[in-house]
Amino acid sequence: MNKSYALNLGLTTAVLSIVLFLLMAILGGGMILSFAIGILALAFMIALPIIFVRKQRKANNGIISYKDAFLTSFVGLAIGGIVYLAFSFIYVNFIDTTYLDKMINQQIETTMSFMQGNVPEEQMVETLTEIETKTREGFTLPGMLKNLGIYLIVYAVFSLILAAIMKRNPVIVSTSEDIIDN
Questions:
Q1: Which of 64, 119, 123, 170 could form a disulfide with 115 if both were Cys (CB 3.0 to 4.6 A apart)?
Q2: How far is CA 147 from the centre of its chain?
Q3: What gap in Å lies between CA 40 and CA 27, rounded to an integer?
Q4: Cα(139)–Cα(107) distance, rounded to whole angstroms?
Q5: Phi, psi (degrees; rounded to nearest 5) at 168
Q6: How far apart are CA 46 and CA 24, in angstroms?
Protein backbone atom coordinates (compact mmCIF):
# COMPACT_ATOMS: atom_id res chain seq x y z
CA MET A 1 0.00 0.00 0.00
CA ASN A 2 1.26 3.44 -0.89
CA LYS A 3 0.67 5.28 2.40
CA SER A 4 0.49 8.70 0.78
CA TYR A 5 -2.86 7.91 -0.87
CA ALA A 6 -4.39 6.78 2.43
CA LEU A 7 -2.95 9.79 4.27
CA ASN A 8 -4.18 12.22 1.62
CA LEU A 9 -7.61 10.58 1.66
CA GLY A 10 -7.68 10.86 5.45
CA LEU A 11 -6.69 14.51 5.48
CA THR A 12 -9.13 15.39 2.69
CA THR A 13 -11.95 13.55 4.45
CA ALA A 14 -11.11 15.21 7.78
CA VAL A 15 -11.00 18.72 6.31
CA LEU A 16 -14.29 18.29 4.43
CA SER A 17 -15.99 16.76 7.49
CA ILE A 18 -14.80 19.61 9.71
CA VAL A 19 -15.95 22.22 7.17
CA LEU A 20 -19.41 20.61 7.01
CA PHE A 21 -19.55 20.45 10.82
CA LEU A 22 -18.62 24.13 11.09
CA LEU A 23 -21.22 25.01 8.46
CA MET A 24 -23.84 23.32 10.63
CA ALA A 25 -22.58 25.13 13.73
CA ILE A 26 -22.42 28.55 12.07
CA LEU A 27 -25.71 28.31 10.17
CA GLY A 28 -27.56 26.99 13.20
CA GLY A 29 -28.59 23.60 11.90
CA GLY A 30 -32.24 22.90 11.43
CA MET A 31 -33.77 19.72 10.04
CA ILE A 32 -33.49 20.56 6.33
CA LEU A 33 -29.93 21.85 6.62
CA SER A 34 -28.92 18.84 8.74
CA PHE A 35 -30.41 16.50 6.17
CA ALA A 36 -28.72 18.29 3.25
CA ILE A 37 -25.32 18.35 4.95
CA GLY A 38 -25.74 14.70 5.94
CA ILE A 39 -26.41 13.73 2.32
CA LEU A 40 -23.44 15.80 1.18
CA ALA A 41 -21.18 14.18 3.79
CA LEU A 42 -22.34 10.71 2.71
CA ALA A 43 -21.61 11.55 -0.92
CA PHE A 44 -18.09 12.67 0.03
CA MET A 45 -17.50 9.52 2.10
CA ILE A 46 -18.42 7.38 -0.90
CA ALA A 47 -16.76 9.42 -3.66
CA LEU A 48 -13.43 10.28 -2.03
CA PRO A 49 -12.22 6.70 -1.42
CA ILE A 50 -13.18 5.81 -4.99
CA ILE A 51 -11.19 8.77 -6.32
CA PHE A 52 -8.09 8.01 -4.23
CA VAL A 53 -8.10 4.26 -4.95
CA ARG A 54 -8.47 5.03 -8.67
CA LYS A 55 -5.55 7.46 -8.49
CA GLN A 56 -3.43 4.82 -6.78
CA ARG A 57 -4.42 2.20 -9.34
CA LYS A 58 -3.69 4.56 -12.24
CA ALA A 59 -0.27 5.43 -10.79
CA ASN A 60 0.48 1.71 -10.64
CA ASN A 61 -0.21 1.08 -14.35
CA GLY A 62 -3.85 0.14 -13.80
CA ILE A 63 -3.05 -2.51 -11.20
CA ILE A 64 -4.08 -2.55 -7.55
CA SER A 65 -4.44 -5.54 -5.28
CA TYR A 66 -7.51 -6.16 -3.17
CA LYS A 67 -5.40 -5.60 -0.05
CA ASP A 68 -3.98 -2.27 -1.24
CA ALA A 69 -7.39 -0.98 -2.35
CA PHE A 70 -8.92 -2.00 0.98
CA LEU A 71 -6.13 -0.51 3.08
CA THR A 72 -6.06 2.78 1.17
CA SER A 73 -9.81 3.21 1.61
CA PHE A 74 -10.08 1.95 5.19
CA VAL A 75 -6.99 3.67 6.59
CA GLY A 76 -7.87 6.94 4.84
CA LEU A 77 -11.45 6.91 6.10
CA ALA A 78 -10.29 5.92 9.60
CA ILE A 79 -7.79 8.80 9.73
CA GLY A 80 -10.48 11.22 8.57
CA GLY A 81 -13.00 9.85 11.07
CA ILE A 82 -10.57 10.07 13.99
CA VAL A 83 -9.54 13.64 13.17
CA TYR A 84 -13.18 14.68 12.69
CA LEU A 85 -14.32 13.10 15.97
CA ALA A 86 -11.41 14.68 17.85
CA PHE A 87 -12.26 18.08 16.37
CA SER A 88 -15.98 17.80 17.13
CA PHE A 89 -15.22 16.69 20.72
CA ILE A 90 -12.91 19.67 21.24
CA TYR A 91 -15.34 22.07 19.55
CA VAL A 92 -18.39 21.00 21.57
CA ASN A 93 -16.62 20.66 24.92
CA PHE A 94 -14.12 23.55 24.81
CA ILE A 95 -14.68 26.00 21.92
CA ASP A 96 -18.46 26.48 21.73
CA THR A 97 -19.88 24.98 24.89
CA THR A 98 -23.38 26.23 24.00
CA TYR A 99 -23.46 24.33 20.67
CA LEU A 100 -24.71 21.08 22.20
CA ASP A 101 -27.54 22.81 24.08
CA LYS A 102 -28.63 24.64 20.92
CA MET A 103 -28.56 21.41 18.91
CA ILE A 104 -30.54 19.52 21.56
CA ASN A 105 -33.14 22.31 21.79
CA GLN A 106 -33.61 22.22 18.00
CA GLN A 107 -34.03 18.44 18.08
CA ILE A 108 -36.53 18.67 20.92
CA GLU A 109 -38.56 21.42 19.21
CA THR A 110 -38.66 19.52 15.92
CA THR A 111 -39.59 16.24 17.60
CA MET A 112 -42.25 17.94 19.74
CA SER A 113 -43.89 19.49 16.69
CA PHE A 114 -44.20 16.03 15.12
CA MET A 115 -45.43 14.35 18.30
CA GLN A 116 -47.91 16.91 19.68
CA GLY A 117 -51.45 15.66 19.32
CA ASN A 118 -50.29 12.26 18.05
CA VAL A 119 -48.54 10.82 21.09
CA PRO A 120 -49.56 10.72 24.77
CA GLU A 121 -47.84 13.33 26.97
CA GLU A 122 -45.97 10.69 29.02
CA GLN A 123 -44.49 9.06 25.94
CA MET A 124 -43.53 12.44 24.49
CA VAL A 125 -41.67 13.46 27.67
CA GLU A 126 -39.94 10.07 27.79
CA THR A 127 -38.88 10.32 24.12
CA LEU A 128 -37.61 13.89 24.47
CA THR A 129 -35.64 13.01 27.60
CA GLU A 130 -34.11 10.04 25.79
CA ILE A 131 -33.13 12.25 22.82
CA GLU A 132 -31.40 14.71 25.14
CA THR A 133 -29.60 11.99 27.10
CA LYS A 134 -28.36 10.13 24.01
CA THR A 135 -27.25 13.32 22.28
CA ARG A 136 -25.28 14.45 25.34
CA GLU A 137 -23.74 10.98 25.71
CA GLY A 138 -22.64 11.08 22.07
CA PHE A 139 -20.33 14.03 22.79
CA THR A 140 -18.63 12.52 25.85
CA LEU A 141 -15.34 10.68 25.47
CA PRO A 142 -16.96 7.22 25.86
CA GLY A 143 -19.68 8.29 23.41
CA MET A 144 -17.10 9.43 20.88
CA LEU A 145 -15.20 6.14 21.23
CA LYS A 146 -18.46 4.25 20.65
CA ASN A 147 -19.10 6.38 17.55
CA LEU A 148 -15.56 5.69 16.36
CA GLY A 149 -16.16 1.95 16.71
CA ILE A 150 -19.33 2.22 14.63
CA TYR A 151 -17.55 4.38 12.05
CA LEU A 152 -14.72 1.84 11.76
CA ILE A 153 -17.15 -1.02 11.16
CA VAL A 154 -18.96 0.97 8.44
CA TYR A 155 -15.64 2.04 6.90
CA ALA A 156 -14.41 -1.56 6.88
CA VAL A 157 -17.53 -2.91 5.17
CA PHE A 158 -17.49 -0.11 2.59
CA SER A 159 -13.76 -0.58 1.97
CA LEU A 160 -14.18 -4.34 1.51
CA ILE A 161 -16.84 -3.75 -1.13
CA LEU A 162 -14.86 -0.97 -2.81
CA ALA A 163 -11.71 -3.11 -2.91
CA ALA A 164 -13.61 -5.97 -4.52
CA ILE A 165 -14.86 -3.61 -7.23
CA MET A 166 -11.64 -1.66 -7.79
CA LYS A 167 -8.99 -4.39 -7.66
CA ARG A 168 -7.11 -5.14 -10.86
CA ASN A 169 -4.57 -7.92 -10.95
CA PRO A 170 -1.76 -8.01 -13.47
CA VAL A 171 -2.59 -9.93 -16.62
CA ILE A 172 -0.38 -12.97 -17.03
CA VAL A 173 0.18 -13.81 -20.65
CA SER A 174 1.63 -17.17 -21.48
CA THR A 175 3.51 -17.72 -24.67
CA SER A 176 4.36 -20.88 -26.52
CA GLU A 177 7.85 -20.67 -25.03
CA ASP A 178 6.36 -21.07 -21.55
CA ILE A 179 4.91 -24.48 -22.43
CA ILE A 180 7.22 -27.38 -21.69
CA ASP A 181 6.76 -30.56 -23.69
CA ASN A 182 7.63 -33.90 -22.13
A1: 119
A2: 10
A3: 16
A4: 15
A5: -140, 115
A6: 20
Start-to-end Cα distance in the chain: 41
Q: pLDDT per residue over 7-62, tens digit each?
A: 999 999 999 999 999 998 888 767 788 889 999 999 999 999 999 999 999 999 99
Q: Alpha carbon of 40 to those of 7, 20, 37, 48: distances in Å?
A: 22, 9, 5, 12
Residue 58's nearest CA partner among 117, 5, 101, 3 is 5
Residue type at 139 in one-letter notation: F
Query: Cα(110)–Cα(102) distance, rounded to whole angstroms?
Result: 12
B/e letters for 28-60, b = 16+ CB within 10 Å, e = fewer, are ebeeeebeebeeebeebbeebbeebbeebbeee
From CA 78, how far away is CA 13, in angstroms rounded? 9
- Identify which of 26, 20, 65 has the alpha carbon closest to the alpha carbon of residue 45: 20
Per-residue pLDDT band at 175 (split at 50, 70, 90): low
Task: Tell me phi and psi for residue 64, to 5 degrees.
Answer: -150, 135
